[in-house]
Description:
By secondary structure, this protein is mainly α. The chain is built from 35 helices and no strands. Among the domains are: 88 residues, no CATH class; 131 residues, no CATH class; 104 residues, no CATH class. 60% of the residues lie in helices and 0% in strands. It is extended.
Amino acid sequence: xxxxxxxxxxxxxxxxxxxxxxxxxxxxxxxxxxxxxxxxxxxxxxxxxxxxxxxxxxxxxxxxxxxxxxxxxxxxxxxxxxxxxxxxxxxxxxxxxxxxxxxxxxxxxxxxxxxxxxxxxxxxxxxxxxxxxxxxxxxxxxxxxxxxxxxxxxxxxxxxxxxxxxxxxxxxxxxxxxxxxxxxxxxxxxxxxxxxxxxxxxxxxxxxxxxxxxxxxxxxxxxxxxxxxxxxxxxxxxxxxxxxxxxxxxxxxxxxxxxxxxxxxxxxxxxxxxxxxxxxxxxxxxxxxxxxxxxxxxxxxxxxxxxxxxxxxxxxxxxxxxxxxxxxxxxxxxxxxxxxxxxxxxxxxxxxxxxxxxxxxxxxxxxxxxxxxxxxxxxxxxxxxxxxxxxxxxxxxxxxxxxxxxxxxxxxxxxxxxxxxxxxxxxxxxxxxxxxxxxxxxxxxxxxxxxxxxxxxxxxxxxxxxxxxxxxxxxxxxxxxxxxxxxxxxxxxxxxxxxxxxxxxxxxxxxxxxxxxxxxxxxxxxxxxxxxxxxx
Length: 536
């Protein structure tokens, strides 16, 4: 009834206060669903006719979720804004609604200064979101002045974070300390990408030019950056903000990683900023002692390979490159097994499919692409590579032409000639072998010092085969055999070991119930022998 009265064309002004009282909910608020919907239908009519500000304020306070829509429709004007701001936070949706009317521009610009980075982006997104009932063939576009204000606000926030970065990390200490507080550019980058015609101008801005340089290098595809704009970003390439951070062993390594990532994103930087790259890399290596013999020995294999790839992109020091090349050569040797797949074609398997991993040879190829590393040092390593790694160098285009040619001309060393790449065979293929057990033993020998999914495939190939023997099964890791259920491999072995002895069965049950990852590398044979010794 109150809604119909509110919408009645002949409703006298004297009735407005009573109608508003009737429409507004009591202390318990609107009943869920229809009451609030009905109330919302009456609002446009009421706001169009009610002049008394106190009544309008009461209606505004009761309808916070509808306010952006009412502002967009022009139902609420400048005189209603104070009440709106009292009952609803100045979020992106509200500011986008206010920005749709130029009369609110100064207020929106003032309110934008109080928003955080993500909320600023929310203003633009809300301004360009289709509204119910709008023409979807013409999507809304945020006003240019609003995008500019959001961009400048975001850049100012990023500049403040950037200036505080060194201070935030000044007291960093401890084994597990990591640099923190580095700005996340992606949000402001989404806005900056909208105005490519202003990039060059913004990189030279005194207040936030350095931020723009960082954002463009980290967030914008290199094809979109002209040579002039990318050259203007070079001052930020070396991440000078990281130069004085504590714990240089960690901070300078992370700095070098980020510099190299930027060179990957923008290969033109290698020529545009050669001296800056070499200087920053030399500083990182020296201050972080990244190539100190003790430091290199403490690195895990993946850390050595990562360092090698980063230096290959950024270093101009032949001695540093020689050291890391030697460290790469000393990495664990991969293994190779040919693992056919039912969907393989007639062509030979690619080297990547043969190798357990190609990290070592790919790191070596990356180093070979640096003109400051002596080629002889790389060629000297060819005799020590696995034959499948030599084939890798001959196959892929990422290998420099001179190294690919050297690999083609390389004659296998005696040790390489003795290495064959075993091939996993089906049971039908094993049927024609004179000694299937010896063939499968060659598979296990090839991966005995390897871990990971590559090893798993070989182990499962052994225990699934009907040609498996107890001697072969004993070499497979215990957790693989115990968890294999297609055939009773583990069950048969346990029955033979335990027989009718309840003590043995109880010991096995207790062991399996408490089994932890500590015995992950224990073979099934070691597991059986250990259980046998416990119940003698």
